[in-house]
Amino acid sequence: MAACKTTEKAASAHLYPRREATSSATGYRKPSLWLYIMEDTDVEQVTLALLDAATDKDSEVQEQVRKSMLTLGKQQPDRVLAMCQDYLLKHPKLVVSHRVVILQTIELIVGCRIEEISNPRIKSIISLASDEMTRSKEVIPDWQQAASNILVAVGNKHINDIMEEILSKFQPGLLPHFFVVKTLANLSDSNVYGMVPFLNAILGTMLPMLSMAKQDNMKWVFSSALCHFSDSILEYLANLDKAPDPTVRKDTFSSEIYAAFDILFNNWLQSRESKLRWTVAEAVGSMCHLMASDKLEEQIPKLIPAILSLYKKNNEHYIISKSLCQVLDASVSMSSRVLETQLDSLLFALHQQVSAPIDYSNPPTVKNHNEVLRCFSLLASTMENKKLLILASIRQPMADHSNKVKKRVVQVISAMAHHGYLELEGGELLVRFIVQHCALPDTYQRGQKPADPEEVTNEALRSMCDNTLHLLTTTVGQLADVLWPKLLYYLTPPQFSNATTPLCKSLIVLGSKKKSNQEPNFNIDFTVEVNLPSPQTLMVRLLVNAAFPFSSRGHGAPSLSLLQILSINIHPNTEILWEKEIPPLLSILEESTAESLDKKQWDEKLLKLLSKTLSTIDDDKWVCQLAAEATRYLSTYNNALEEKSFLYQCIGVTLKQCFNKEVVRKQLQEMLLTAKHSDAIEREGVAMGVGLCANSHLEGTLAKLEEFGKSDAFKKSPSIFNLLKERNDVEVEKVKSTLILCYGHVALNAPPEKILTRIDQDILRAISKHFNTKDLTMKLSLVQSVGLIAKAISECVKKQGYDFIKAEPADSLRTPLRHLVMTTFANLMYPSASMPLDPALSENESFELLKCVLSATRDTNSRENQREDTLDPKQRKALYKDSLAALQDLLKSFLARDPTPDGLLNIFKHIESWLSSGQDHERERSVTAISHLLAFYLDNLNVKNMVTFHNLGALLGRLSPRCSDPHPAVRTAAVDCIYSLLYIQLRYEGFSLDYNDEGVDSLLLLKEKLDNPDHSVLYKTCSDLTKVMSKRLPQQQLTTLVFMLFEGLVDSQANCCRASSVILNTLLKNRGGGLQELVPEMLEVLHVRLQNITEEQVRVAVGQTVLILASQHLQTVVNTLVNQPLPFDSWTSEMWMALGADPIIANQIMEMVMEKLLIMAPY
């Protein structure tokens, strides 16, 4: 129907270009209404004009005529068909092309409106088409085919009328017209259920005609018809439940079909005309299914060789393969006994066909390939006793080096797998072939394309093998016990490393299914499966894969998932641990890319997983075996040194958990002796592994390193005439470099409580004798090792410093210990202005250190503590001064590490809680510390790019209320803070270092006024200070400042609450006009704050804030307050009362309400 609509649309456009209506909703152009109300005379005139125009030789004009006639015919089919019929009868001498267009038009109308055409008109159309089709004895394809198509179209509805007409021209003893036979063939395709009941009689009439056919074209049409008849009968028999006569059986046609087969096969198949041979072969294939079983059995020894011989006589092989497939299908269906005798010739021919290249731009070659695969599948399903022979026959093409041949082999293996071949002896070679080609390297670099589009690249073949392995895993159920656990073998040899991802995915599917079904063979007996790698080797391999998750086509996540599935098989104790630990690791990989993953942190997580695993296994014998096998496995990574380096670390973690000191000594010896010392990555890996081992075996590790330093590895072997002297020297220097690095990592990883005593007497003594070297590699190793030793010492000092500070009484200063420890921390973190000491503290370490030192200094020097303290006042004052100075130096060293707005805020949040303390000395200490910190930040600020100081609003909001703090020292320090903050903002805005801002500089003069305790003076000063801030505050920082000031309305100090309100109102008067979108949120926050404000003066100031907002955004304020829940609570009422205090505002509100009432319904 869609096609009809499209045709109708085009016809309308042709006939009536100016009389169309367009649907704007759909864009579909409907035929004009005028078309439906045309007079009969108009229809006749238009139809005649179109019929005359059909003589045009232009194909586009002919197409438009057909479409236009169809449009008319769909509205008045009988009338238009009658006119077409009359036109043809009145003009018997029309040129063929003219008649063809008219006949095609009739076919189109009949096809679209067959249900609406009257029976008399149908009969006359059948008579016309039959006459047109057979008028000429010669074959005129276009004309006669157009007439034949009309008969086929009518036959879909009126098969009996059609057959009455056609059979009148299909009489016994007379050779029929070519197109009579062709029409019968096409009818059997288009109306299977209507035609099959006639076919027995048709075949009976046709058989004598076959011997009368002498010309190739008649032989061709009879062969084609027999092929179509056979296919129709097979379709009818396959769907008897839908058939009008369910009693029809195959044997109804068997004798006639066999008689026809005899003529086609014995007389016509050997024709010289290739087109006839193809058609006969196709017909023979279809007819086989309808032949009696005994007759087919007789013919198979002759039939199959005859079809196979056609491959040599024809270049196009699809029809031949299709026919052969049908013959094999029929033979297999009847369980032929003689088919086996043809097996050798069949396999030989099919092998040649399946190895032929496929031209994907030529569909017949693709179809031929698919038919050949079906042939293999059919043979495989029946030749059970020949399976080993078939299996052996595939080995020859498996050895071919061509990727095109290999691709065919993979397809054959896939077909064979579904018929049980892979379970046979030798089937493992087919599995190996698939896995081997899953591991192929890339043919081309990324972005490159093959010059030959038909080339089968490694990438294409590998992808095909990946998919085949997946299909074998998921769709061939009987293979599960072959692939599990055999596929585990391929995980560890390095030549299969690129196949790890598909292997793991298949094993995950197999293992998960067996585990969920509680199949006994899920549990692997490694003593029976002797060819499989041990549990220890499997675990090590999968962990190393996971350490490089995006290598080898992303094998990290599949390796971890498989490790979790294998847990019970690795060791029973691992299951619960890995169910908890592995999923979070997989989540990290899902959210990461090769670029975003922090490799160092990722390695640490995997080593931590290994350590937890070994602790959970709690079996020293198992752990010792793991260490030994991991050490032996090192050589498999000789071409992947990054992976080998990680494996050294795994060995180190394993030895750390190993209690057998002899095993530890032996594995350390193996690592040091077999390492490739000439490579920097491997030297580092060995050293890290040895260092990790030292965490539990410090004495043994140092002893082994000392022994190794005295071994033959450091002796320069004599060479003939000293020709190799230079090479030997280089090798020895590289071994020394490894040893030096080992000492550094031992110092870093050893227990802090043990290492300090060993650094001087063992470690530094061992490496100091190499400081005179001229070898660059050794120099680099020495520098790195010394850095690691320094870091180890730093960690020890930090740990002891923590302990010292925590041991001090938190509420008093009695010793200089605090400030000395803090000074030491500062020096360790940032010993000079130009050289911070690596490594930087982590975020957690920084947090803990700041928390520790701030807590240690917070409560000291309070008056209560001074009364209880017996320390001399001068001495106490000195300690207090030194401690605060040390604290400030430490804070500066933290800031020097990260001199950015974020770094500043990270420190500020630790001190922030002191700002609202009830203790004067704590507030003074915090604001003073912040003042020094901001001054340091300003002095060391180096703005390379124009960036924003995005913390300005938050910092001003917390510090500005302190300008009216009850304690004078706090007020003065707060102004200094604001002064520094505003100059920092100026620097970020791009102003030069020597730029002086008059407004900001005026803040220093305000400090003098802050000495006056008079509240009115303090608040006036705060207002002046706010005006300066308002001028220098960027718009994007205003919101943050306002909401921070809201927090200040409930400060612990009443003076600061009042100051917050003064600053807030001054700021809103100057800048509130640009905050309309935030007014509802601001009012909501004020509503909440009012509930906690006890100071009457501050409550009045909040009312003033509401009034200021109303003066700028009255409509928004009123709408927000009106929408408050009814009845209004006291705080909302307080806001309304504040608005009413201003007569102008109150009057405007009343006008707004009255106007609203006039246009609103009462309810």
Low-confidence stretches: 1-37, 717-728, 800-822, 824-837, 858-871
Q: Report on the biggest sheet.
A: 2 strands, antiparallel
Number of helices: 55
Percent helix among the residues? over 70%
Mean pLDDT: 82
Strand order of the largest sheet: 1-2
Taken as a percent bin, the fraction of beta residues is under 5%
Which structural class should the secondary elements be placed in? mainly alpha
How many β strands by DSSP?
A: 2
What's the alpha carbon Rg, rounded to whole Å? 48 Å
- CA distance, first residue to last residue: 56 Å
The gross shape turns out to be flat
Organism: Dissostichus mawsoni (Antarctic cod)
Domain Maestro-like HEAT-repeats: 921-1150
Keywords: Repeat
InterPro entries: ARM-like, ARM-type_fold, HEAT_MROH2B-like, Maestro-like_HEAT, Maestro_heat-like_prot, MROH2B-like_N_HEAT
